[in-house]
From TrEMBL:
Domain of life, per lineage: Bacteria
Residue intervals of the DUF1254 domain: 37-166
Lineage of producing organism: Bacteria, Bacillati, Actinomycetota, Actinomycetes, Micrococcales
Source species: Herbiconiux moechotypicola
Alphabetized InterPro entries for the sequence: DUF1214, DUF1254, DUF1254_sf
Protein name as it appears in the record: DUF1254 domain-containing protein
Pfam families for the chain: DUF1214 (PF06742), DUF1254 (PF06863)
Domain DUF1214 span(s) in chain numbering: 291-397
Amino acid sequence: MTISDDLARDAYLYAYSIDEAYKFLYETTIAPGGALNRFQKLRDLADDTYTAHPTINNDTLHLQGWFDVAAEPVVVTIPDADEGRYWILHTMDMGHYTNAMIGSRTRGTRGGTFLFAARAWDGDVPDGVDEVIRSESNLIKVMGRIMTVGGDDLEVARALQDRWRLETLSQHLGTPTPPATQREFPDPASTDWLERVAFSLADGSMAVADVEWLGRYAAIGLEPGRTEFTAEQLEAAARGEELGMKHLEELAPTLTNAGELLGTREELQHGARDLFAAGTFLGQWGLPPVESVYVKIDTGSDGLILNGSGGKEYRARFSAPEVSEFWSFTAYAYGNRLMAHNALNRHSRGDRTLTPDADGRYTLLLSSDVNAHAADGNLLPIPEENTYLVLRLYGPSEAMQRGDYTSPVFEIVKNP
């Protein structure tokens, strides 16, 4: 059977999010000899020195890592937070579907104890557990976020971060620990995406959950646990990756709202796979719209891509977005989708860092000339290259979740 370009491309688009999750696991934990079931703490706000994954926020401290629930569940205990501080424990299975959003939007300041288990686990839930979360994959991506505005507040946020506790169920109960599941993780440097995705599909119940998708791509060899592929399948995989990445690179700049890109299996299991893959391409840790809406802004009032070259500057005036938690703009360079260096080390501006004007509206200035505007609290530095902004709306209104939000217009105020 000849594997067509369309089938090869679509198979890759299906597999893309799984493979990106696997490569991130390997890069951040397996290759450096890190441990599963342990929080990796980012003790400072991410800035231009952070390059592990694109489009990370500049608003919160992070606790990231990987749960392994193959042998037994894990238990996370989170302390109560102070009033007005955004926090969330966000987890995703290896398919890039969100399976938990536990935080201030739904619980306010109240922390709790939460148990994460494989879909097939049938043990007894201990007393004191507030919620049980099931995962289709035995390996679960974890990202905790604790808001901070920096300065003196940074130590308060770090103290909260240090009180987040992660244990296996046996550690939590003080009982004997079952043998850990042994795995031979394929090295991305010497394997292709077919082998890595087959490995991931075999570790848990993802292959059962995705049986309809896998049936479509059987010809290319997408099968849980498979390690050997025909020459035709390998050639089609290479062709599919090239065509799939070309499609994502063309599609991503046209997307301005994440409503169809990020979410739970229940919401997106049967949605368009290229849109779902674009959600991974634009940012691996994106939250679903009920928690956070992401609005990409990449053009000025002249219709051209935002760019600080030659001293070009932009200004927007706008009313505060309707959110229950907070909102912020962060600037990223188009080339690598990372924050760019500036002398102020300032990468975001929002409701905690901007002061409203006399009429209650806000002003945001974009410029690469940091020296000229260093004293202006409304300045968000942008690089002298193509740039985009992500407006994060945490706890958005229902209208915003539906995509009913008009982005601020950035007027040209200086165009040498």
